[in-house]
C-alpha cells in the first residue's frame, strides 16, 4: 500500500510547526528565566558565571537589598496611582477625541486631525517643554505624571481607525432614538471598542509604569513623588558605581548583605521587581491585545 500524502503532509506540517513554536518559546523565555535565576542566586557566586535556569546558591538577599531603603514601597504606590489614573484618563479622553474626529459631519475634522498628527513628527524639545511644565505649575506636582500624556496622537489614530470600521447604522439608529453624541459614545461606541481600548490601555499602562525620566526632570526634589522606576534607577546607578565593592546596599540593617550582593545580582532583582506587575496584568488583557493588533490586517 502506498503512502497517503493527504494524511502525511498535515502530520509533518503540525509536527514542524509545533517544534518551531517550542523553540521560539524557549528562546523568548530564556532571558527572563535566566534573570530570575540570577536574582535568587548569591551575588558573590554569580560573579563566577555559569548561572542558566536555576540558582546555584539560593538567597533572597538581592531582594532584601532592593527593599532595604524603605522608599521602594511608597514609590510603588505612586507608580500604581500614576499608571491607573494616567491610563484611565488618557484612554477616555483619547477615545473621545477619536470618536469626534471619526465623524464625517464634523467640519473641523481634517484641520484638527492634521494638528494632532503633526505632534507625532515635531516637538519643541526638552527645554521648552520644561519651561511649559514650570509655567503650568506642575513641577513637583503629581499631575505632571498625568496631564502631559492625556492625549496620544498615535493612540487616537488607532482608536479612530477601529471606530470607522463600526457599522454607521448603529450611530444613526441611536440618533433617531434621541441619543446625543455623548450618550452615543458612552452607550454604543465604548462597549464596541473593547478590543482596541484594551490594546491601547496596555500600551499606555506599560509606558506609565516604565517611565522614570519625567520624575527625574520634574519631581526629583520631592521624595514623596518618587516613582518605583526612578528609585530602581537610582539603586541601579549606585550599583554600577560600586564595581570595586560587592555591596550596593546601605544602612545598618544591611550590614550582613555587604558581601552578598553585587551589581549583576542586584540588577537582576531590579529587573524582576520592575517587570512583575506588568506580567501579572498582561494575561488578563492578552485576548483583547491579540485581537487589537490585528486591526486593519484584513479588509472585507
From TrEMBL:
Transmembrane listed as a keyword: yes
A Pfam family that the UniProt record links to this protein: BPD_transp_1
Alphabetical keyword list: Cell membrane, Membrane, Transmembrane, Transmembrane helix, Transport
GO biological process, one term: transmembrane transport
Gene3D superfamilies, A to Z: MetI-like (1.10.3720.10)
Family: Belongs to the binding-protein-dependent transport system permease family.
Official protein name in the record: Carbohydrate ABC transporter membrane protein 2 (CUT1 family)
Species of provenance: Paenibacillus barcinonensis
Amino acid at each position: 500500500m502506498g503512502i497517503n500524502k493527504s494524511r502525511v503532509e498535515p502530520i509533518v506540517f503540525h509536527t514542524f510547526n509545533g517544534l518551531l513554536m517550542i523553540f521560539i518559546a524557549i528562546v523568548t523565555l530564556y532571558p527572563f528565566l535566566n534573570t530570575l535565576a540570577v536574582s535568587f542566586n548569591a551575588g558573590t557566586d554569580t560573579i563566577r558565571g555559569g548561572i542558566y535556569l536555576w540558582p546555584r546558591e539560593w538567597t533572597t538577599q538581592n531582594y532584601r537589598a532592593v527593599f532595604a531603603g524603605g522608599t521602594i514601597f511608597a514609590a510603588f504606590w505612586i507608580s500604581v496611582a500614576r499608571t491607573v489614573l494616567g491610563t484611565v484618563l488618557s484612554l477616555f479622553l483619547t477615545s473621545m477625541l477619536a470618536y469626534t474626529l471619526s465623524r464625517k459631519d464634523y467640519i473641523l475634522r481634517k484641520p484638527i486631525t492634521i494638528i494632532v498628527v503633526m505632534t507625532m513628527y515635531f516637538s519643541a524639545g526638552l527645554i521648552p517643554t520644561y519651561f511649559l511644565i514650570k509655567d503650568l505649575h506642575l513641577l513637583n506636582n503629581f499631575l505632571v505624571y498625568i496631564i502631559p500624556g492625556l492625549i496620544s496622537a498615535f493612540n487616537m489614530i488607532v482608536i479612530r481607525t477601529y471606530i470607522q470600521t463600526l457599522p454607521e447604522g448603529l450611530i444613526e439608529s441611536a440618533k433617531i432614538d434621541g441619543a446625543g453624541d455623548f450618550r452615543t459614545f458612552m452607550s454604543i461606541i465604548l462597549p464596541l471598542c473593547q478590543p482596541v481600548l484594551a490594546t491601547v490601555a496596555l500600551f499606555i499602562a506599560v509606558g506609565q509604569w516604565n517611565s522614570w525620566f519625567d520624575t527625574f526632570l520634574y519631581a526629583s526634589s520631592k521624595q514623596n513623588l518618587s516613582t518605583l522606576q526612578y528609585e530602581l534607577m537610582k539603586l541601579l546607578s549606585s550599583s554600577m558605581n560600586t564595581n570595586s565593592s560587592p555591596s550596593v546596599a546601605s544602612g545598618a540593617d544591611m550590614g550582613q548583605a555587604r558581601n552578598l550582593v553585587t551589581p549583576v545580582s542586584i540588577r537582576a532583582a531590579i529587573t524582576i521587581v520592575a517587570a512583575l506587575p506588568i506580567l501579572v496584568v498582561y494575561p488578563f488583557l492578552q485576548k483583547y491585545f491579540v485581537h487589537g493588533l490585528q486591526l486593519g490586517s484584513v479588509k472585507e
